[in-house]
Amino acid sequence: MKTYPINLVLENKLVILVGAKGEIVHKIPGLLEVGARVRVIAPSAAPEVEARACAGEIEWLRRRYQPGDLSGAAVVFAATNDPVVHDRIWAEGAANNQLVNVMDVIDRCNFHAVSTFRRGLLTVAIGTGGAAPALAVTLRRRLEAEIGPEYGEFLERAQALRPIVQRRVHPFRRRVEFWYALVESPALDALRAGDDAAFQRIVAALLAQYSTFPQRPAAPAPALELAA
């Protein structure tokens, strides 16, 4: 099944997990990382779930799912050993127009989770449409080894650099050219090597090349402007 990829903003949104053992437990750290409010519904749970509940990180309703439990949730995950419960969760979620994923039951999902990793602001996600999640995990592990922390640092610096580029490089098309030139430059190599001076030189040279108006000799150097 072909799917349309998106990144959900779940900060302060309620996410419900029906089931608290096995693979569904691995959803919790990622949900907490993006600021979701996590509620688990299960009569018993894995030790890590119980520990998080005791620490106040998540809410745990220590009972079985009941109709109406999904009220207010933005996203619902379910993983129990009861197909009848899965059918009821699916029906309630569909009636509420909620995102529902009954794990490993493709026809009881209106979205599929993906295998992800982060490097700062960079999120890399790989999905298989629910056909072979193990392949997504395998590819993710390969990419994790290739995409290092320098990519996260690059994005932090790019975010700080953006208003400078907006101010100095016109029109929009030329700004696009600047960003592609920066990405394709040795800037990432410099960050990978921990060479901040080299990164600053690359940025300064590209700003000089793409700026709409040449900088006067007395103007502050781009490296100082970027650092500010």
- Summed up, the helix count is 9
Low-confidence stretches: 218-222, 224-228
Mean of the pLDDT scores? 92
What does the largest sheet look like? 5 strands, parallel
How much of the sequence lies in strands comes to: 5-15%
Strand adjacency order, main sheet: 3-2-1-4-5
Secondary structure: number of strands: 7
Instruction: Give the CA-CA distance, first to last residue.
Output: 49 Å
Helix content: 40-55%
Please outline what is shown here:
This protein is of the alpha/beta class and about 230 residues long. The protein is built from nine helices and seven strands; from the N terminus they run βαβαββαβββαααααα. The radius of gyration is 23 Å and the shape is elongated.
Give your account of this protein's structure:
The chain is α/β, with parallel strands linked by helices and 228 residues long. Helix content is 44%, strand content 14%. The chain has helices at residues 27-33, 47-54, 83-95, 133-146, 150-168, 172-184, 187-192, 196-210, 222-227, and strands spanning 14-18, 37-41, 59-61, 75-78, 99-102, 115-119, 122-126. The strands form two sheets. It has a five-stranded parallel beta sheet, with helices on both faces. A two-stranded antiparallel ribbon has the order 6-7. Helix 6 (172-184) runs antiparallel to helix 8. The model is unreliable at 218-222 and 224-228 (pLDDT under 50).
Produce the secondary structure layout.
Layout lengths: L13 E5 L8 H7 L3 E5 L5 H8 L4 E3 L13 E4 L4 H13 L3 E4 L12 E5 L2 E5 L6 H14 L3 H19 L3 H13 L2 H6 L3 H15 L11 H6 L1
Parallel strand pairs: 1-2, 1-4, 2-3, 4-5
Antiparallel strand pairs: 6-7
Helix pairs in contact: 6-8
